[in-house]
Design a protein that fits this description.
Helix content: 10-25%
Number of helices: 11
Shape: globular
CATH topology of the largest domain: Quinone Oxidoreductase, Chain A, domain 1
Structural class: alpha/beta
Distance between the termini: 19 Å
Low-confidence stretches: none
Number of strands: 16
Radius of gyration: 21 Å
Largest sheet: 8 strands, mixed
CATH architecture of the largest domain: Alpha-Beta Complex
Strand content: 25-35%
Order of helices and strands: EEEHEEHEEEHHEHEHEHEHEHEHEHE
Mean pLDDT: 96
Length: about 375
């Protein structure tokens, strides 16, 4: 294998409205259970743009980017970092990893809520300090620490397909896990952005009998056809479906837009015993009004999803590997930029609002 350099080029974010600083960051000396990954591709998530524009606070200075894949360049001494199948990772392995590293021993971790670990280390969200500075995807290398969930990737699958797996795709896998068994069930996806389109495709993959997608934007809604949508529902027509007959209602509703009006409408679209999963509300909104009697008599279940657990990452990789030719998943990435053009890349993303742009540090 090629020897590692002493440092890595990284795009450091300091503050909204300020250009990124291209700096060289020293690579750490690895400890047991750690690894250095050469970044192949980092897709820019909507939350990254919110941080850059000031809508979302992030510790600074920092290296943003949490949707990334790459190749193991070095592993620490002693007991090596293992993938989720329990196999030791070696230089040359193409991998994806979880958005966060968890301790495995605190109460949330012991309860299967590792994404809420009390000692969480979140990639693309860490202040640039200490030995774990290379923690984001907008850099040539990333430092993986103990407690990171890692999955090997098929070398034949495009980076444009796999790039979003560390956030968007795995979050959708968590949403569908919360929805329960959807085989032969009717599913409604609210929101036709990257999450919603992925959810429509994944619902089809999991055997849903009918997948509907609802959105306010007609262009985004039309795009859902290619991702498995059997029915397109313009938002202005959604209220007409309230209190449906069982053959027209939905057994699971996945709310991925974070829209209070949609959350309030959703219970009236559920079949008896249906499940409403909320995952789009990651910013403060107005309070919503729900009818508790409707929920009780309808035997409805409401679940919240934020981030995901390692099994969801495995499911997401499996979905992308099996379905990248069935659905146009590579089309999420609409433009690609080298790391040195990070300011132009972000300006393009803010101006055109694509599903994703990709940064390829090696180009």
């Amino acid at each position: 294998m090629t020897s590692l350099p002493d440092s890595a080029l990284a795009a450091v974010f300091h503050a909204p409205g300020r250009p990124f600083e291209l700096s060289r960051i020293s690579l750490p000396t690895l400890e047991p259970g750690e690894a250095i990954v050469r970044i192949e591709c980092c897709t820019v998530c909507g939350s990254d743009l919110h941080s850059i524009t000031g809508r979302r606070e992030v510790p600074v200075p920092t290296i943003l980017g949490h949707e990334m894949i790459g190749t193991i360049a070095a592993v620490g001494p002693g007991n090596p970092l293992q993938d989720l199948d329990g196999e030791p990772l070696q230089p040359g392995d193409r991998v994806a990893w979880s958005v966060a590293a968890s301790c495995g021993s605190c109460t949330p971790c012991q309860r299967g809520l590792s994404q809420k670990c009390r000692r969480l280390i979140k990639y693309g969200h860490q202040r640039l300090q200490g030995r774990h500075q290379l923690a984001g995807g907008l850099a040539e290398y990333c430092h993986l620490v103990r407690g990171t969930a890692v999955v090997r990737l098929d070398p034949s699958v495009s980076a444009d397909v796999l790039g979003p797996v560390g956030c968007a795709t795995s979050t959708v896998a968590a949403v569908l896990r919360a929805a329960g068994d959807i085989a032969d069930r009717r599913v409604l996806v609210i929101g036709a952005g990257a999450l919603g389109l992925t959810a429509a495709a994944m619902a089809q993959w999991q055997g849903a009998s009918h997948v509907a997608v609802c959105d306010v934007n007609p262009d985004r809604l039309e795009r859902a056809r290619g991702f498995g949508a059997d029915q397109l529902i313009p938002w202005e027509a959604a209220a007409d479906l309230a209190t449906p007959a069982p053959e027209n209602g939905f057994d699971a509703i996945l709310e991925l837009a974070g829209a209070p009006d949609a959350i309030e409408l959703a219970p009236s679209l559920l079949n008896v015993g249906g499940t409403l999963v909320l995952a789009g509300t990651v910013f403060p909104t107005r309070p919503v009004s729900l009818d508790p009697e409707q929920i009780v008599r309808g035997l409805f279940r409401i679940a919240g999803v934020h981030n995901y657990v390692p099994a969801d990452l495995q499911q997401a990789v499996r979905f992308l590997t099996e379905c990248h030719q069935r659905f146009p998943l590579a089309d999420f990435v609409e433009r690609t930029f080298p790391l040195g053009e990070i300011d132009a890349a972000i300006a393009s993303a803010i101006d055109t609002r694509p599903c994703r742009i990709a940064i390829r540090p090696g180009e």
